[in-house]
Structures are given as structure tokens and as C-alpha cells.
Amino acid sequence: MNLLCYSHLSWNFVYQRPQHLLTRFSKFYQVFYFEEPKIGDSDKYIVNIQDGVTIVELFITRHDDTTNERLRDLINQVLKEYAIDNYINWYYTPMALQFTDHLNPAKIIYDSMDELSAFRFAPPQLLELEEQLFKKADLVFTGGNSLYQAKKNRHHNIHAMPSSIDKAHFGKARKIQHEPEDQMSIDSPRLGFFGVVDERFDIELLREVSTQRPDWQFVIIGPVVKISPDDLPQADNIHYLGPKTYTELPLYIAHWDIALILFALNESTEFISPTKTPEYLAAGKPVISTAIKDVVQPYGNAGLVQIIDNADSFISAAEKIFNETEKDHWLRTVDHFLENDSWDHTFNKMNALINNVKKDQTQIINTQKQINHV
After folding, report:
1. Which CA distances in Å does 168 have to 14, 332, 373?
2. In the CATH scheme, what is the code of domain 2-164+344-373?
3. Neighbouring residues of 310: CB distance < 8 A, sequence distance ≥ 6
4. Is 260 helix (H, G, I), strand (E, B) or coil?
5. Structure confidence by residue, pLDDT tens digits, 177-213
6. pTM exceeds cut of 0.85
């Protein structure tokens, strides 16, 4: 069986939910990961293999009324080249329906990892296409509990699958002694953030706290997208170190005093479930977060993360952490809480649900007849 995944994210952008899941699915399926189409010098596709997953880059020369037809042709060429005739369609973006609606998959999966319609520059037709995808899908996953609550009445077979952690990977941060050169010269205490810096990032909170506490050092790791770097606060105690690989992250976080979830509360963050929350905790770092729903419940309510709502409460929470001399009990509580949390466990639950889907064979036959007729 083949698994064809259509995503709005480039495979090498940030290592997150799709990579964690699909590398595990690649042990049981031949996985093809179709990236969002790009503009190129010709209509073509380029294929390479990473982590057991076949990455397909789609290129088109222009956007016009024939775009989706030409993308369908490229998809068909990939299926023909690799002799793919039995497959599952897995969607991270409903936009891909525009050029995959002619296909006849055995099953259709929608992994709704974020509320994409609330993100900056979201295409206007996204919501309409998502409604179509809900009608077509055999199974829907959501990337967090708040997103599940928002969408649970839109599908008969929908399940919350919050993003998980690779505990062993981030657990290395508890023992690492070596420090990267670009962080080595930064004074302490260090308060760090890793992730995409975009419209969700709380620029004003960082500006206020860094101004009020100039002796605290703020380390920001990750790519800046959809916002101008010029809009980010600049100060001697704010250090933008740029993107780092997934492998490198424990090297940096190992030498932080506090880890941060610096997200503004707006429509683009209403349903997010930050993967970094359990990753920070697995690294053994105290965490301060704004009141993101999927952080408040369960992590804040369990006393594992300090939830703040402004610069004053941020500073109070950080000072409390700095003054804490007994950390062992907190760490034992963290480890107990994360005991059954792993990407392997999440994968196993998702794969079992996929295997339980019984596609209506009459529907498949009728769909194929429609395609043949066209």
C-alpha cells in the first residue's frame, strides 16, 4: 500500500508533526510527500528520498486557469512512473483537493494539524475546500484538543491526536555539556524559544519583558516568515540565532534556564497545540507560556507550565523559577506525566484507526465510473 501525502509545508522547513508521523508510516507504507507547488522554469517534478519518505517537489511555470489541470498531469506522471495503483490520500491542506480530485484512493485521511484558514495569507477558497474534504474523508485527525472541539461535529469519524514528543531526543538536553558557538558568548540567565517566528509570535510581550529586564538574555531560534524581521524587537539582550536543525535543538535548550512559548492570543493561535510544550518539558526545562488553550489544558492545569497573561506576570513567573532551589520533585512529576506520551504511541493509535476504516466498495466503483466517463 502507498500513502500519498499532500502538504502546505516543505519537508525541510521545520521538523514537526508531518515528519514525525510519516517517517513512522514509511515503515509500513511507501510514503510520497507532495510539497506545495512552486513556480519553476517548466512544469516538472523532482523526487528525492529522505528518512525513508519520497519527497516530491512540484513545479509549474505560472498560475492561470490551467494550473490545476497541469498539476493533475504531474500527479498522474508520478503515479505512472512509480506504478502506484493502490494508495491512501493523506491531506494536510485542503488546497490540494484542486489537483487531486480526479484520483481514486482506497481511503482518504485529513490530518488537520492547524486551523489554516486563520493564518496570515490564507487562500480565500480554503474553507470551502475544507468543507469538501470533510465530505470526502473517511477519517479525520486534529492536531490538538481545542481544534477537535471546534471541528468534532463536522465529521462522523474524527479523533483528537495531539502532537507528541521524542523523549529520548530532547531528554539529551538534561546531560549535554557541549554548547554551540553562537550561543556560548550569551550571558545568563537565558530564556529561550524555538519555532517558527511568524504572525503568531508575541512581539510586544518580548519587547516589554526584555526592556524591563535588560539583564535577562532572550534566545530566539527559528525562521522568520510572513512578518518582516524589521518588526521584531531589537536589543542587546535579544539574540536571534536563526533556524537550527531538529538534531541541534537539544544542544541549545540544554543551556537555557527557562523555555518560552511566546504566542500572542489571536485568531491564528486560537486552536494551536504547540509541539514544543512537551519537548521543552522532556528537556527538563521550566516553561513559561501565554494562555494558549492546549497549553493551559493539560500542562498549565497540571502545574507543569507557568501560564502568564502580560509582562508583569511573565516577570513574576520567571523570578519564581529562578528562586526555586528544589527541582527534583517537579522533574519527577514531568516524567510521570509524559510517561505514555510518544510519537510511536500516537502513530500506533492513528494507524489502528486507519486500518479500521472500511471503504464502501460501491462508492469506489461509482467514483471510478465517473472518472472513466470524464
Report:
1. 19, 16, 53
2. 3.40.50.2000
3. 205
4. strand
5. 999 999 999 999 999 999 999 999 999 999 999 999 9
6. yes
